[in-house]
Amino acid sequence: MDGCVPGQPGAHRGAWLVVLVAGIAGAGWAVERLTRPRTVPPVPPVPARSASVTASATQSVAPIVPERPDERELAVDAEALAESLARDFAGNSRALAVSGRVLQLFVAPERGRSRFEQATAIAADEPEAWLGLAETAWHDGDYPQAAAAMARLERVAPRLATEKAFLWVDSLVKSGDGVSALELLGRIADTAGGEAALPGWAQVLLGQARTQAGDLAGAVTAYDRAAADPAQRVVAAYGLAQAWARLGDAERARRARETYAALQEENLAAFDRAQQAETTTRLDAKYPVLAGYHCEAGSLYARAGRFDEAAVHWRRAAALAPEWPEPRRFLEVLAAQEGR
Question: Do the domain assignments include residue 63?
Answer without folding.
Answer: yes
